[in-house]
Amino acid sequence: MTGAATMRILLVSIAVATFLVRGAAAQVPVSESQWATALGTWRGTSVCLVHPSSCRDEIVVYRITPKSGRDSVAFDARKIVRGQEEEMGVLTCRVTRAVSPAIDLTCAIPNGLWRFRVRGDSLLGELRLADSTRFRDVRTIRAP
Questions:
Q1: In terms of residue numbers, what domain contains 7?
Q2: What would the 3-class secondary structure string for 31-57 be?
């Protein structure tokens, strides 16, 4: 066997092992305490990153509640307009990773993907459009 063939086998083996480890990590059950850290009310900002656009910076309130099982949540998104909450919609989000002390949530929408990370009393996130453009930046804290 040539040195190039040996190198190819080694690289393929590493790639397969990496894929298997990532897949196993993604399937690790989320503990109840980890999962529960995402639940609750979050308040903060959602800032537009694409200018000019019809997008506007917003003060937001998110209420995260359990959905079915421990791998998905309902994300009730609202914005504050003239001191009042206005409904923006409810997202279904999946727990995509839970490695203490953080939990990651992913919410697919028709034109993009929301990603959020809960760590302690902060929930940070972003919206990326289908073409990978980073469209919004979200920074919130747990509300009492």
A1: 1-30
A2: CHHHHHCCCEEEEEEEEECCCCCCCCC
84 and 70 inside one domain: yes
Report which DSSP code applies to 43: E
Q: Are residues 112 and 136 in contact, defined by beta-carbon separation less than 8 angstroms?
A: no
Residue 75, CB half-sphere, CA atoms under 13 Å: how many? 23
This model's pTM is above 0.85: no
Triad 94, 98, 100: Cα angle to 5°? 155
User: Are 48 and 21 members of one domain?
Assistant: no
Q: What is the pLDDT of residues 15-73, one digit of tens each?
A: 333 333 344 334 445 566 667 889 999 999 999 999 999 999 999 999 999 987 778 99
User: How many domains are contained in the chain?
Assistant: 2
Judgement on whether residues 85 and 97 belong to the same structural domain of the protein = yes
- Distance (Å, rounded) from C-alpha 3 to C-alpha 13? 15
Query: Are both 17 and 42 inside the same structural domain?
Result: no
Enter the DSSP assignment of 31: P
